[in-house]
Amino acid sequence: MPPAVSQDNVITDRAPHAIARCRSASHLLRNFLTSCTALTLTTLSAAYLASFYLPWRALASTEIPEWIAGYTERIANTLNSGEDLGIGTLGSSLILAVIEDEEGKVSQLCRNSLEENTGSAPKLSILASPGNLTSDYEKLVAAMLDRPPTKQPKLILLTYSYRDFFDNLAQSDESASPVAKMLTYTRERGHFLPDCRKLFSGAALEETATCLLHHKRHLHSVAALFRTTLAQQAELLRKTYLVQTPKQNTRSETAIPKLDLQTDMKVYKTRYQPLNEIRWHSQLQALERLLYNCRQRNIPVAMVNMPVTDANLSLIPNEMKGKWQAPIRALAEKHDAALKDFDEAEVAGVSDTDFADSVHLKKDGARKFADRLFRWLGSTKQYQKAFEQR
Fold first, then answer.
1. Residues of the chain with pLDDT > 90: what percent?
2. In this structure, are 35 and 115 located in the same domain?
3. Total-model pTM
4. Is 338 inside a domain boundary?
5. Domain presence at residue 297
6. Is the pLDDT of residue 228 over 50?
7. Domain span at residue 150?
8. Measuring CA to CA, which of 27, 183, 246, 315 is 20 to 30 A from 234?
């Protein structure tokens, strides 16, 4: 007969088994947590690396200054909105100095001038950004014409200057301009899957390497996906709960850097000289495609050669002075577009003292020119076709 075992002995005999079980459970839990951590880190790392092949890669890899990126982002939001565009206004910083206020919206001065001089008050959509070439305007018009017919612009107001056809400082690859990159980004942002077809091409690898080297810019581009939505939600909450927030200057990201006149003239001399005939012909071709597409869609176009100072005009190479406008006028006539040369300050109703530098008008100069601009625009058959018969 086996010896009697006390209760204490039973506990003592079973203790090693319980401790072993506890250690085993602890080991399993530690392994589980370690595995989860490793899996999470691996997943996040893979997702981050894969994100460089997402649609915003093309935008993130571009060396776009923050203030220009702000303008292109605003254009993207305008194109992606469901709002009527009214007058789709194209151009560079020259027209922005005339029509936008400190918040980056159409100024009240501009709206008043439009109504007073045309007798109507159609919406004016800003689709201009600094440094654009005519090839950028062609791409923007194509994006506008891709919208539903009821959301397409009623009239295209195409503003330009000599620089838009000849700029030596612009990128040689027209598909790599800020506007072109932005349009690629917005066209593809509807999906978030890597494009495996481009995964190992030379261009894709080079683009990815640029993104990796500028990962902060990449993250900023990712954050931009949600910026507009968050801003709209914040405004909704503010209105819902009547929270009064102080008015802030929203142009910090889109403020055009100011140059003194001497520096500005040096920059424009580099832009204009020497004559870039290859760019000149490619930009003329882009203009003809733009006008052709608008005529095919029955969208009237009004073209405006923007005012600049006499000093700026003097920088145009001698072989092009008084000659570069002729092919543009011929294309406008061919495609039934209105055109007005305001490049001489006197014709625009301003003087050189109305300019902040050699091309950008001050507020008083903008007011004077806006009256001349909209008075002419309202008198064109293109404007009357767009609005008075609707």
1. 48
2. no
3. 0.72
4. yes
5. yes
6. no
7. 85-192+255-388
8. 183
- Phi/psi for 88 (5° steps) reads -80, 110
- Tell me the residue type at 130: P
Give CA–CA dist 328/323, Å, rounded. Answer: 10
pLDDT in tens, 92-148: 999 999 999 988 889 999 999 999 999 888 999 999 999 999 999 999 999 999 999
* CB contact burial 288-314 (16+ within 10 A = b; e otherwise): bebbebbeeeebbbbbbbbbbbebbbe
Structure-block tokens of residue 58: 């093309």
What is the Cα–Cα distance from 278 to 151, expressed in whole angstroms? 35
Tell me if 280 is assigned to some domain.
yes
Euclidean distance between CA atoms 158 and 91, whole angstroms: 6
Whether 24 and 137 map to the same domain: the answer is no
Distance CA 367, CA 346 (A): 14
Residue 321, SS3 per DSSP: coil
% of the chain exceeding 70 in pLDDT: 67
The position carrying tokens 């093309």 is 58
Asked if residue 66 belongs to a domain, the reply is: no
